[in-house]
Design a protein that fits this description.
Elements lengths: L8 E5 L3 H12 L4 E4 L5 H18 L5 H9 L1 E3 L9 E6 L5 H12 L7 E4 L6 H5 L8 E6 L8 E6 L5 H13 L3 E6 L6 H4 L1 H12 L5 H10 L7 H8 L1 H14 L10 H9 L34 E4 L7 H18 L4 E3 L7 E3 L2 E5 L5 H8 L4 E4 L10 E6 L5 H13 L3 E4 L8 H17 L5 H11 L6 H8 L1 H15 L8 H9 L6
Parallel strand pairs: 1-2, 1-4, 2-3, 4-5, 5-6, 7-8, 9-10, 12-13, 14-15
Antiparallel strand pairs: 6-7, 9-11, 11-12, 13-14
Length: about 525
């Protein structure tokens, strides 16, 4: 399907930050763009702001002065819906209210041509429901940009139940022609990104509620070990808890109170207190004048004491993943010039020092694993995006673990160059449980026909800047490892929240990767 040609007039209704950003993208791509807003003067203000952005781009050499001037001249502020009669695409970026969106498009149906496409930028409302008020719902699809629209690459093309496939394909091609990376999605709560991202917040909130570590430490582990651009608490503070909590509630209710999306009482308290985050000075962190951001808790540097052994290839089915963690330790210890020996793998262990034995978490607590294995001095290390490059790692010791053994295990990791954050012994630690839940939710979205596996991964990398797509991450770690982590979390908590996606189960049973 071909993209809309540059000769097609684009209309943008609603000229706040998102609407103005979409208008800027369309004008830069060569379209005449008409802007309409029900607030007097708002459309012209948006035009002036976009022209200023084009001028700044010319100053920085990202556009020629001629191109910037031409793009600015393609922007037209209009005062009434009748002025949009010649539009080939009407994008709405108005208030997130079903009735308002339905009325807007129902009114426009009598103004625009029969082949005009409607593209709603809704992030949370059913495209099917918006279309239900139209005489021709087949012309409507979601055209969901991410903020700021000129900078963010992802666009979700969302098909409602009545959406004509040619309409969705035309929008897909048009978004690509505008320099964006579009992905197809079916209209279900949260589409792709706002659904799959929920565990990034939910698991962090649960960790905090259970006292695993403080906010700054969890954030640091997710950044420095997990490779995420922002930790979950600083990200929620940036988004705003009024917004983030509302989205979580919306998705939870839309899925008929599925426990996977259960809102957090911790975040509810912030909303009740009016602590919305950076926007008003207080959230998980204090942003008021003079308040400093707390540092992550890091174990005091210690010198390793005891014989160090790095264990070889495991005979377990998931041996490749654990072997990778062991080999990263080998590389890092060689750089530190610390002596160690090699030994065959036993029961998935990665390393030992003195009486301490280190494993990568499999979703059980260290205390449970110690009880089941009979190895009291058990320490668990968290998942890392790249064990060779990570600068920090989370660790937990079993309650049975001797203090000296815990200190020795931590000293070993420090000698390998990690800043070590010791967590309370919580199942799955931070990165592992979060990645497992992200992969599980993405797998369920694919299993339910919301999107393809490649679209899920693209959406999460480009829409929320994840360092790796959740399903690609599951393939890299091992779908059997992710399955086991989820099963162990489910057994630990006794909650349906951690039920395993059928798609993930099938991949394990078939002995294949999700992307095979």
């Amino acid at each position: 399907m071909s993209a809309l040609t540059p000769q097609t007039v684009i209309a943008v209704v609603g000229t706040g930050a998102m609407g103005a950003g979409i208008a800027q993208v369309a004008a830069a791509a060569g379209h005449v763009v008409k802007l309409l807003d029900n607030r007097p003067g708002a459309a012209q203000l948006a035009v002036d702001g976009i022209r200023s952005q084009f001028a700044k781009m010319a100053e920085k050499g990202r556009l020629t002065a001629t191109a910037a001037e031409a793009a600015g001249q393609r922007l037209i502020a209009v005062d009434q819906a009748a002025d949009l009669a010649d539009a080939g695409l009407v994008v709405e970026a108005i208030v997130e209210n079903l009735e308002a969106k339905q009325k807007l498009y129902a009114d426009l149906e009598s103004i625009v041509s029969d082949d005009c496409i409607f593209g709603t930028n809704t992030s949370s409302i059913s495209v099917t429901a918006i279309g239900a008020a139209l005489k021709h719902p087949e012309r409507l699809a979601g055209l969901h940009f991410f903020n700021p629209a000129p900078l963010m690459a992802l666009v979700e093309i969302v098909s409602g139940l009545a959406t004509d496939r040619t309409v969705a394909d035309t929008l897909f091609a048009t978004a690509a022609a505008w320099g964006k990376t579009p992905v197809h999605a079916r209209s279900t709560p949260g589409f792709i990104v706002n659904r799959v991202a929920r565990p990034y917040y939910a698991e962090a909130l649960r960790l905090a509620q259970e006292g695993a570590a403080d906010y700054a430490t969890i954030d640091a582990v997710m950044r420095d070990a997990g490779g995420f651009r922002m930790g979950p608490f600083e990200l929620m503070d940036m988004i705003g808890h009024d917004v983030n909590f509302a989205v979580t509630n919306s998705v939870w209710r839309a899925f008929y109170n599925d426990p996977r999306f259960l809102p957090s009482l911790l975040q509810q308290e912030l909303v009740d207190a009016g602590f919305y985050g950076k926007k008003n000075g207080r959230g998980f962190y204090d942003y008021r004048d003079g308040a400093g951001k707390p540092a992550a808790q890091t174990e005091t540097a210690q010198t390793p004491a005891g014989k160090i052994t790095i264990h070889g290839e495991s005979t377990a089915p998931q041996g490749d993943f654990f072997q990778g963690a062991a080999e990263a330790l080998v590389s890092r210890l060689q750089d530190s010039q610390l002596s160690f020996s090699r030994a065959p793998a036993e029961d998935g262990r990665v390393a030992s020092i003195g009486r301490a034995v280190l494993y990568v978490t499999d979703g059980r607590s260290a205390t449970q694993r110690a009880a089941e294995s009979g190895i009291a001095n058990t320490l668990l290390i968290d998942l890392a995006l790249d064990y060779e490059q990570a600068t920090r790692i989370a660790v937990a010791a079993a309650e049975q673990c001797e203090a000296a053994a815990a200190a020795a295990g931590i000293a070993l990791l420090q000698a390998a160059g990690f800043a070590v954050s010791r967590f309370r012994d919580i199942p799955g630690l931070a990165v592992m449980r979060t990645v497992a839940m992200l992969a599980n939710e993405a797998a369920d979205a694919v299993n339910q026909g919301v999107c393809s596996a490649s679209a899920a991964d693209q959406a999460m990398r480009l829409g929320v800047n994840y360092p790796r797509g959740p399903l690609a991450w599951a393939d890299q770690v091992g779908v059997d490892v992710i399955r086991d982590v989820l099963a162990n979390l489910g057994a630990s908590y006794g909650e349906d929240r951690y039920r395993i996606s059928p798609l993930l189960q099938r991949a394990v049973f078939a002995g294949r990767k999700i992307h095979d």
